[in-house]
Amino acid sequence: MTEKEEKSGDEKIIELQVALEKALRQVEFHRNETKEVLGGMKARIDAEVINRTIEARKDLYRKLFPVVELLKLTCASINDNARFEDIRSGVDMVYQQMLTLLNIFNIEKIKTVGEKFDPNFHEAIMQDGSGKFPKNIIVQEFESGFILDGKLLKPAKVSVSM
Length: 162
Prior knowledge:
alpha+beta, Nucleotide Exchange Factor Grpe, Chain A, domain 2
């Protein structure tokens, strides 16, 4: 190899090294630029999630206000001359309004009395051995259970026939 060929080979190596360094700087620049863009997107998404959560909570609270007011009116109507039926009616109105509110949020009350016991939705806290009912039928509800979009939130506490 001649000195000229050797020099041109060294020059090519230097050119390639310079091009490689330039390419690496560009990659680093674009990587940093991408990080900034993604960081900004994450911050915007986080802020949006927080805002939506706050708005959903506000919506729930606004829907609770009529229930609170109805309960307040029911309590205010109770006096020494109050009839039991009137009190019961007022409390039942509050209960029905609360169930309606839960349904608005896709929360459903689990069916119990007369239904077949399902351990996925019911918690047996008592057994009925009277023989009056078919086996594995719920005969009494102690606490309501609820599901949200088909998924269990709280099991119903029940008594089941043996």
